[in-house]
UniProtKB/TrEMBL annotation:
<comment type="pathway">
    <text>Carbohydrate metabolism; tricarboxylic acid cycle; isocitrate from oxaloacetate: step 2/2.</text>
</comment>
<protein>
    <recommendedName>
        <fullName>Aconitate hydratase, mitochondrial</fullName>
        <ecNumber>4.2.1.3</ecNumber>
    </recommendedName>
</protein>
<keyword id="KW-0816">Tricarboxylic acid cycle</keyword>
<dbReference type="InterPro" id="IPR001030">
    <property type="entry name" value="Acoase/IPM_deHydtase_lsu_aba"/>
</dbReference>
<feature type="domain" description="Aconitase/3-isopropylmalate dehydratase large subunit alpha/beta/alpha">
    <location>
        <begin position="62"/>
        <end position="499"/>
    </location>
</feature>
<dbReference type="GO" id="GO:0046872">
    <property type="term" value="F:metal ion binding"/>
</dbReference>
<dbReference type="InterPro" id="IPR036008">
    <property type="entry name" value="Aconitase_4Fe-4S_dom"/>
</dbReference>
<dbReference type="GO" id="GO:0005829">
    <property type="term" value="C:cytosol"/>
</dbReference>
<dbReference type="GO" id="GO:0051539">
    <property type="term" value="F:4 iron, 4 sulfur cluster binding"/>
</dbReference>
<keyword id="KW-0456">Lyase</keyword>
<keyword id="KW-0496">Mitochondrion</keyword>
<dbReference type="InterPro" id="IPR015932">
    <property type="entry name" value="Aconitase_dom2"/>
</dbReference>
<dbReference type="InterPro" id="IPR015931">
    <property type="entry name" value="Acnase/IPM_dHydase_lsu_aba_1/3"/>
</dbReference>
<comment type="similarity">
    <text>Belongs to the aconitase/IPM isomerase family.</text>
</comment>
<feature type="domain" description="Aconitase A/isopropylmalate dehydratase small subunit swivel">
    <location>
        <begin position="578"/>
        <end position="707"/>
    </location>
</feature>
<dbReference type="GO" id="GO:0005739">
    <property type="term" value="C:mitochondrion"/>
</dbReference>
<comment type="function">
    <text>Catalyzes the isomerization of citrate to isocitrate via cis-aconitate.</text>
</comment>
Length: 789
């Protein structure tokens, strides 16, 4: 008798063999969408058109991106300059951002999404007790939102992944990503799919609406940064250390406007899920996205996840479409030797402050970091693969064999229901519990601030170590005094055994329960489960053939959901003598602009969530958060309250900030909220890519100081005028006047608006313009494109 796992592997091999047959052309994009086929033939034709025009070798990312051009024979293609109109293959949205995206799609009046699209319920589940209890509580607490998302998906033709299914990026990797894919997702860590050779790009909800409405998606043509990998990953070094090193080299904004393209002999030593880890955290260096070339590790993963046909057809197009041309040119080239790469720990408060493990203890003492670690946390969308869990379980078993376990609370977040079920079947779940760990729900949890933390008081200085991707101030637990360090899951597990920052598992010994000294062995874990993946519970709901009879209701009295009202059109006049709502000092991420954590429950209600506007930003006037002077009344109040007062009194306002404003999450609420509360412009030294686009989509003027030192000319009580707006044009600076008492300064502000984006501003928002075009029967008419070629 053939055992089930053996039979499954034989069937996969058979499907893989058939897939390599050139006659086998119609391969579904996923096992859930049998009528939407891989677009390789069409992509190949488009790419040939582009190459005949450019007449130069192309990088891999250029091949994948340009093969998705809407009009390849006429579009201007210049790295870092031109805007590309693209046709993504699919859209993915997580539940926190999907609410607003679907509300916008509903208001467009369209009947069905034009491309394969999915919604993933992962953001609203708070870590409190354990996975089972936390999931049950979330289903009850957020029933209204889940019902809305589920019914909207059914009505408009989207796949719906229920709460408990897992984190969006892990689900995409397991089921939807493929080499050569172009996907947009309403989460900044969408680039995770680059681990399977796809260009997966984080966007705001308005961009997702465009694609779902069959409108070409616009992206400034990215530059390409090459990262040449040599040597091999081994010992305590992990794939996470590659991106931690890249963060050290490029900083949080060094990748802005660029795709990171990994290549070289070192690639083959990294598993598919390890490559996904590296691409995932590319968001922390500002990269548009990241990707790896098609290789045997990807082929193995595709086959192991039931997609042998995709693996075979991808190999047929490997040289033409899925590999960089010889002698292609990168805008920047970085070299990393994996043989000499040391494990890194980055932080606190920023993901680009890197410490080699050999110097981490010394650096921590010198900088006054709290040396005792309070909590260790592994998992999240960045590091929750079977391999990650296996390597951590291997370390835990090593410690247990010496009578030791975690010295601190140790939380484990599986990336998906499939990972949870498989590690439970293979005994890792039990190992983590014996180690003293708590297995949390298959969800984002503490990584995004969904953590009901009780072990420290607010404001208490403390340290946590995580395998997450982001460690901005207050990110995980809303406590600005928490020092969060991001590192590999293996290093988190090892540090949790000792419980201190000055433990180096590469050289330091531990004392076992028998009093004998020992060193932890370098971790080992299988790349893929020998007995195949266990899918666990079925958490997917496919849309019906027709959604005509499905009702999507939004209660007007709801505190969670709110039907959107269109923003006002620009009245054609200059903005004169506007008030400065807030001059922000230092780092201002989307977490500072629109906090997550407990505020996630209002992501579908614009007015309610606007009560968190700028509450985490530091006011340059007094170095305090959420306390500023109302220039109209002279009283100090919370930022949202002052903004509402200005709006009620018809005072237009601006906000002023520093470098890389809006880095971090893709959440468009950070752009919707200032627009909703009466803001008209954000003026900063520089923007993060996604947030700048989100502001434009909502009709805001996203402007940068032509001279960064002009930031110092703005005072809390300044009056700002933006002049000659009727002449707003691509590449032409905006005239600005800053009045301070009896004096004034005239400066210039730069912008990156193109002609289409200027029309968004004039119409009041991109959605307003879409409606205008649709009602006029113009280019905005939604006609599903043919994805079956």
């Amino acid at each position: 008798m053939i055992k089930r796992p053996q039979l499954a592997r034989q069937l996969l091999a058979r499907r893989f063999h058939l897939a390599r047959n050139p006659l086998w052309q119609k391969v579904p994009m996923s096992n859930f969408e049998k009528n939407d086929f891989l677009p390789y033939q069409k992509l190949s034709e488009t790419l040939r058109c582009v190459k005949s025009r450019l007449k130069r070798p192309l990088t891999l990312s250029e091949k994948v991106l340009y093969s998705h051009l809407d009009e390849p024979d006429t579009q201007d293609i210049k790295r870092g300059e031109s805007y590309l109109r693209l046709r993504p293959d699919r859209v993915a949205m997580q539940d926190a951002t999907a609410q607003m995206a679907l509300l916008q799609f509903i208001s467009s009046g369209l009947k069905k999404v034009a491309v394969p699209s999915t919604v993933h319920c992962d953001h609203l589940i708070e870590a409190q007790v354990c996975g089972t209890e936390d999931l049950a509580r979330a289903k009850d607490m957020h029933k209204e939102v889940y019902d809305f998302l589920g019914s909207a998906c059914a009505k408009y033709g989207l796949g719906f992944w229920e709460p408990g299914s897992g984190i969006i990026h892990q689900i995409i990797l397991e089921n939807y990503a493929f080499p050569g894919l172009l996907m947009i997702g309403t989460d900044s860590h969408t680039p995770n799919g680059g681990g399977l050779g796809g260009l997966c790009i984080g966007v705001g909800g308005a961009d997702a609406v465009d694609v779902m409405a069959n409108i070409p998606w616009e992206l400034k043509c990215p530059k390409v940064i090459g990262c040449h990998l040599t040597g091999k990953i081994s010992g305590w070094t992990s794939p996470k250390d590659v991106i931690l090193k890249m963060a050290e080299i490029l900083t949080v904004k060094g990748g802005t406007g660029a795709i990171i393209e990994y290549h070289g002999s070192g690639v083959e030593s990294i598993s598919c899920t390890g490559m996904a880890t590296i691409c995932n955290m590319g968001a922390e260096i500002g990269a548009t996205t990241s990707l790896f070339p098609l290789n045997q590790r990807m082929i193995k993963y595709l086959c192991a996840t039931g997609r042998g046909e995709i693996a075979g057809l991808a190999q047929k197009y490997q040289k033409e479409l899925l590999t960089a041309d010889k002698n292609c040119k990168y805008d920047q080239l970085i070299e990393i030797n994996l043989d000499t790469l040391e494990p890194l720990i980055n932080g606190p408060f920023t993901p680009d402050l890197a410490h080699p493990i050999s110097k981490f203890g010394e650096n921590s003492k010198k900088n006054g970091y709290p040396m005792d670690i309070k909590v260790g946390l592994i998992g999240s969308c960045t590091n929750s693969s079977y391999e990650d869990m296996g390597r951590c379980a291997n370390i835990a078993k090593d410690a247990l064999s010496h009578g030791l376990k975690s010295n601190i609370p140790f939380n484990v977040t599986p990336g998906s229901e499939q990972i949870r079920a498989t590690i439970e079947r293979d005994g890792m779940f039990e190992v983590f519990e014996q180690f003293g760990g708590t297995v949390l729900a298959n969800a984002c949890g503490p990584c995004i601030g969904q953590w009901d933390r009780k072990d420290v008081k607010m404001g208490e200085k403390n340290t946590i170590v995580t395998s997450y991707n982001r460690n901005f101030t207050g990110r995980n637990d809303a406590n600005p005094a928490t020092h969060c360090f991001v590192t590999s899951p293996e290093m988190v597990t090892a540090l949790s055994i000792c419980g201190r920052l000055d433990f180096n598992p590469l050289k330091d010994e531990l004392e076992g329960a028998d009093g004998k000294k020992f060193k932890l062995k370098p971790p080992h874990g299988e790349e893929l489960p020998a007995n195949g993946f266990d899918p666990g519970q079925n958490t997917y709901t496919a849309p019906p053939a027709s959604g005509d009879d499905v009702k999507v209701a939004v209660d007007p009295k709801s505190e969670r959901l709110q039907v959107l009202a269109p923003f006002e059109k620009w009245d054609g006049k200059d903005y004169v003598d506007m008030t400065v709502l807030i001059k922000i000092k230092g780092k201002c991420t989307t977490d500072h602009i629109s906090a997550a954590g407990p505020w996630l429950k209002y992501r579908g209600h614009l007015d309610n969530i606007s009560n968190n506007l700028f509450i985490g930003a530091v006011n340059a006037e007094n170095n305090e958060m959420n306390k500023l002077k109302n220039q109209r009344s002279g009283e100090y109040a919370a930022v949202p309250d002052v903004a509402r007062d200005y709006m009620a009194n018809k005072l237009k306002w601006v906000a002023v900030g520093e470098e890389n404003y809006g880095e971090g999450s893709s959440r468009e609420h950070a752009a919707l909220e200032p627009r909703h509360l009466g803001g008209v412009a954000i003026i900063v030294k520089s923007f993060a890519r996604i947030h700048e686009t989100n502001l434009k989509k909502q009709g805001m003027l996203a402007l940068t100081f032509a001279n960064a030192s002009d930031y110092d000319k703005v005072k809390p009580d300044s009056k700002i005028s933006l002049l000659n707006l009727k002449d707003l044009a691509a590449g032409k600076p905006v005239d600005c006047e800053i009045k301070n008492g009896g004096s004034s300064d005239k400066i210039q502000l730069n912008h990156s608006f193109n002609e289409l984006q200027i029309k968004w501003f004039q119409a009041g928002s991109a959605l307003n313009m879409m409606k205008e075009l649709a009602s006029g029967g113009g280019k905005g008419d939604a006609k599903p494109k043919d994805t079956k070629k």
